[in-house]
Amino acid sequence: MKSAARWIEAWNQWWFPQSTGLRLAVCRIVVVAAQLFVFMPFFQPSLAEHLVLLRGPTGFVEPQWMIALLAAIPGAGFVFTPIFMTIAYFATIGAGASTLVGFRTRVSAALFALGTWFFVSHAYSYGEEHHAEAILAIFLLLLALSPSGRRLSLDAVRRRRDAGAPGTVGTAVWPLKLVQLLLAWSYLSNGVAKLAFGGLEWMNGYTLQTYMLQDALKWDLPLGVWLAQHHALCVWLSVATIVFEMTFVLAVFVRRVRPAYLAGGAMLHLGIYLTMGAIFFQHIVLYACFFDVERGAAQPSGRYSPSSAGHSP
What we know:
By secondary structure, the chain is an all-alpha fold. The chain has 15 helices and no strands.
């Protein structure tokens, strides 16, 4: 029984350590700002592109569940119109701005998450699906389910005026831990899929050469064309990618290896973008969830030990 109690205590300390909420607030600002000022204007379909999709001759190819639900209730004739899409787009931007400054944070974060989900789902309902936005969209919803406006927000200013300086809570770290695990699962599932469908041959270099050359020629990426011609480098990159994806979970639990994994992940995604045109910059932004600014320095946070109770690992 004592052993079980210790496991339960360690579990609770890992998920729900006491926190001022500063760490979550910093992540709220970083991720929401990236979505508003980087991903929406540069890497996701614009409002004009969404309106063009509406006018397409084929309609939905494979509607996502949210799109199918809205097409049934309240109906496609009401939702999927230029007027509704325009209002929804600017309402989403407004909700994002409100989330960024922390005004009515829970409500605005919920609206921003739903708006983001809606437009991502709409773009993917016409036949081409990706998954780069998935974890970021989940994190936006987690902001609405947690005290993300407790610090660095207009809500915090109002609360301090009414009730004084805030203390600590045990519900401001679990969204960050969940995102860490989702990132680890995303990498692990990709690594397992490569080995399951390609076997060890995926690391022979030729597989990466083929995919890289196809994408580099499609998107006119000279670096990808050059790299695809060097078999030895492609072998090394294939092995390094598998090792990184299969072991990234260590970054969740072992503080001392985190800098290497986060730097390696950033270089991996930047390299994929420059050689193959695939955009996974959302993962890099979500690396902010690994940093514990409450320790007094922007260093990756560490592994739980009983002596560090009250601090987030």
